[in-house]
Amino acid sequence: MPDVMRAAVLHGIGEVPRYGEFPAPVAGAGEAVVTVGAAALKPFDRWWAEGLHPASPTVFPQVVGADGVGRLDDGTRVAFFGPVTPYGGMAERALVRRGLWFPVRAGVDDVTAAALLNPGGAAWKTVVWEGGAGPGKTVLVLGATGASGRIAVQVAKREGARVVAAGRDRSVLDALGADAVVRLDRPKDEVVDAITAHGPYDLVVDYLWGAPAEAAFAALSRGNERRVRYILVGMSAGATAEVPAMALRAARVEVIGGGTGGSPSIEEAAAAFDRMLGLVAEGEIVLDAEAVPLADIEDAWTRPENGRRTVLVL
After folding, report:
1. 3-class DSSP state for residue 188?
2. Do 251 and 126 share a domain, yes or no?
3. Dist CA 19 CA 229 (whole Å)
4. Is the separation of the CB atoms in 126 and 148 below 8 Å?
């Protein structure tokens, strides 16, 4: 019999992945097999499975999971990304192009490293590498109570920026250590007033789009005298936003999509990830992760979002 493994397998666009058997990968030239210990369930994974991303699959079955943490054949522990299709990260083994991984330092467990990998890397890239956050800069994070938003707030604070955190969960907002908070579960006019009051801004990091983005653009058009870089990362509050032309004409704002401004080198990204692992170990970056057996993928996939990062463990 051919070698098989257990995996979370997607059988069609829009379906829920199912736990089952899948042929085990065999490394070819320039590839390596990683024995997976943990893989986080992220918004990207759901968008990918729903056909909402340019990289969404067209051939099935496929294993889901854009990244994970595990060990190479020589025992080296790595956080890997961009696995070779059809072998995603949510499986006993994943196929990875050589070098598309970061070393994982001792003292941080697989679940924590997997939970940090995607939102931590994305937050550093957006807030620091693309956004230029630092001393003297003010950053607005829309969606600060989600897993990615929380890390973005903490990364921006670590860089010395003044941070305004916007979200719906007041208890989470108050625990983030931001310089100011904006509750989004209020009438739009109140949200606009609150965002305006805590400005002016140099950078907006948006994980929400939808109505929160409409409020943000309305606030920015009220005389935010600084030039603003607005980076759209996610769309958990809606795939569309109605932004009047005059709001864009009145605001000194540059709107870009997260990830469209090029990419740092593997070495730069690996160094940033290692620094963040160190901050997690020291308690300066706080993660809220929940370990769930891979066998429970169907239940985990269909649960409502609660702000915690679900990590599938083998």
Report:
1. helix
2. yes
3. 42
4. no
Asked if the peptide bond before residue 212 counts as cis, ω within 30 degrees of 0, the response is: no
Q: Which two tokens stand for residue 189?
A: 């006019």
Domain residues for the domain of 166 are 120-257
The rounded distance, in Å, linking the Cα atoms of 137 and 162 is: 6
In our burial notation (b when 16+ CB lie closer than 10 A, e otherwise), range 88-107 reads: bbbbbbbbbbeebbbebeee
Candidates 223, 212, 211; CA nearest to 250 is: 223
Q: Looking at residue 1, what is its pLDDT? A: 40
Compute the distance between CA of residue 26 and CA of residue 43 in angstroms, rounded to an integer: 28
Q: What is the DSSP string of 237-251?
A: T-S-----HHHHHHS
Q: What is the CATH number of the domain that holds 77?
A: 3.90.180.10
Find the mean pLDDT for residues 73-85: 97
Which two three-digit tokens encode residue 90? 């949510």
For residue 83 the two structure tokens come to: 């696995």
Query: Closest Cα partner for 224 from 244, 210, 204?
Result: 204
Which pLDDT score is estimated for 261? 65
The mean pLDDT value for 183-193 works out to: 97
Residues 216 and 127 in one domain: yes
Q: Which two tokens stand for residue 284?
A: 């300066």
Contacts of residue 269, Cβ cutoff 8 Å, sequence gap at least 6: 102, 121, 124, 125, 263
Q: Model-level pTM?
A: 0.84
CB–CB of 166/142 below 8 Å? yes
DSSP string, 9-76: EE-STTPPPEEEEEEPP---TTEEEEEEEEEEE-HHHHHHHTT-STT--SSS-EE--SEEEEE-TTS-
